[in-house]
Amino acid sequence: MGQEGSGGVSDREESRSAKLPARPLTAAEQFGKALRGVRVRQGMTQRELAKVAYVHHSIISRLEAGQLSPTTDHAEQLDRVLDTKGALLELATAARAEPYAGLPPPPLHFVGRARALTALTDLLIVAPNEMPNRSTVVFVAGPPGVGKTALARHWANSNADRFEQVLYADLHGYGPRPPAEPGEVLESLLRGLGVRDDRIPGTDELRLALLQGQLEKRRSVGQHVLIVLDNARDSRQVAQVLPGTPNTSVLITSRTRLSGVVIEAHAKSVRLEPMDALDAAALMASFIDEARAEAEPDAIARLVELCGALPLALNIAAERVAANDLMTVQQHADDLAERGRLELRVEDDDATEVRATFRWSYESLRPEQAQVFRLLGVHRGLHISAAAVAALVAIPVRDATRLLAELVQAHLVQQITMHRFSLHDLLRDYASEEAANPRWDNERHAAIRRLVDWYLYTANKASWAIWPNRPEHHLDLGPAPDGVTPAPITTFDQAAGWYETELPNLAGVGELALHHHLLFPAWRLALDCFDFYLHRRPWQVWIDTFEVALQAAEQAKDPERIVPAAEELAEAYLRRGNLNRAWELNSRVVAVSEQLGPTWILSFAYVGLGNIMYERGNFVEAARLCAQGLAVAKQVGSLVGETYAHTHLGRAYLELGKTDLALEHGNHAFALQGNEGTPHGRGYTGVPLARAYRHTGDLVRARRVGVESLQAYEECGDTPGKAEALGELGMIFYALGERDDGRAKVEEALDVLRPIDPRIAAHLQRQWAALRDGPSADCAAHPGLGAVDS
User: Fold this and answer.
1) What are phi and psi for residue 317, nearest 5 degrees?
2) What is the distance, to the nearest Å, from the Cα of residue 732 to the centroid of all Cα atoms in its chain?
3) Residues linked to residue 138 through DSSP beta bridges, in sequence order
4) What is the pLDDT of residues 388-428, one digit of tens each?
5) d(CA 169, CA 239)
6) Which of 50-59, 64-73, 276-285, 546-555 shows the lowest mean pLDDT across its residues?
7) pLDDT tens for residues 57-73?
8) Minimal CA–CA distance to 218: which of 127, 84, 87, 99?
9) Is residue 11 within 8 Å of 114, Cβ to Cβ?
10) How far apart are CA 258 and CA 269, in angstroms?
11) In whole angstroms, how far apart are CA 210 and each of 26, 214, 251, 595?
12) Backbone CA torsion sign across 697, 699, 702, 706
């Protein structure tokens, strides 16, 4: 098989394995080294040996130096006198035989891989006094194109001087040629040991026995042999050629994890992953001149990204850049992005091609494995669960788990956690390309529908567990379609855990549904995530999924879908500080609602508009709009709408100095959530009420409500909400005279909020400054004053 990528020791990393490759010993030098070793161990000088063997001492000197090829007579005499039981005779035969092609040279461009090189050295180099009673077997495993062959050749060439002989065989496990048969591999190894063709047996069993005998003879003269078996297909192919002799170290490369070899030969593994970004950039720079690479570091980084840091792709891309200096590196990167990275290939070598390299692995899979692999290409998230794969393929979860484990063994899939898996970017491209083949159209469309439904029905179950008392918002979807088994979710913690895990995938699934005109799931999926978004505030996912939901609602031309999607998207933009976009969306809700009549969503839109005016410092208009929202909520009987409106109307009245009204509305909201609400609702309404009590000087009640709010947020696991409550409690403690404790609480809250919710952190910072510095402080108590539109 051709060289599979590169990787070696960079200037940034040092390894005792990283040194200039030593020249392997010739067969004559191997004979001489063995002769000298036996002679010295038996305590004889060259002249003493010459006297008893009837061989001139100058010939012995030249033989030991490897300067003379031993004759049969000399070898027989020396073997008899030193009692090496034919070992010296075998070595002499090899020295006179046609030179063995042996180990291929190391790759010209090799960067990084210090840890892997060190691991190989630690595992394969065995001290003479620590020789085990069996062969030392190590295999390098990893996905196609990751540089396993390059690593093995680099290490073997670099450490050839630590062995008396290095043998090499390409097993052709994956590639254009059929996999090598055991007899073919054994024949190659025997020839490497100098065995003539007419002495090689006809059966595999006898060939293996002869190989073992040859290696045992070398063991008797203290020789250590390295065997490199490159590109193995599976454990069965390897097991039939392993000699098992104690003086032999065996280095294997394979795309599969050789579990059978681990069991039978106690093999150790070294897993190889794509390169890190710095080493990948250094590899590319080694192909093109340093000045050119240093002049366009961003373009080099872009090429590395396009190649997925996969050495095979990096080598081909770098060779193209080096071969054509009329184009800038950036132009090469743009060209690759336009043509597609699977098109990377060496023009005069069809075997050295990214797509072909992947195809050999794909075509070796069983039909059910191949189906799972290609359908993984339709999933647009960062990773996927076994349960989602089960829906994708319409099989039980246990079967999906088994097939995924087999693909992990084949290094086509990466296992992230016990039940979650992912694909390398280039392998994802290949799987997606294969799934898009017209022959799989029916399979693909059905799989996408099942996958989208799995996410939709699971998110729907989770939404009820997050906030059970929102019947006006939640929707009962009924039983899931055939082939779809939603994740088992009944508790808040289970729901929150599922959402947390799937966050990186939600926007991609929504886009997948929208792209395939599955408009209801593309819309509804976001709405069923909304309550979780309120708890965790994953801003970008919130915005991305709801932008998709709004597009789906617009394509469906359904105002009843447009209204909730626009309002809940507006809430995200408001909290992110993009007041103009939030105003535009809430105004659209009000306009569309004219044809629908009053709804709970309309009440939220009015309060949302009021909150925007609050942020802009117009508290009179804020109070008017929130009161309008409260009226609509009461009209339609929305408990959550009333709570929301009372909370924000109370905030506006507090800024207007109407503390009685602020407390009235704040207590009303807090009581509504205390009777029928959720922990999140109690925390959400409690923090503004505690603030109102603090401003009126009723610090005892302020502390009581603040503590209840903190406990409520802790109960539902809302980290940002907990920090808001802690910050308010800190200011209450400070006002009570417990200044050190108060300051510590505020600082802790700010540390949590700054990276999660900078807007709320800025509000808290202004309130803290106003309290700490007094009424003369530059910042007023109003938390939203000075907010700037994005």
Assistant:
1) -65, -40
2) 45
3) 251, 268
4) 999 999 999 999 999 999 898 887 888 888 889 988 877 88
5) 14
6) 64-73
7) 777 887 888 767 787 77
8) 87
9) no
10) 9
11) 22, 6, 20, 90
12) positive
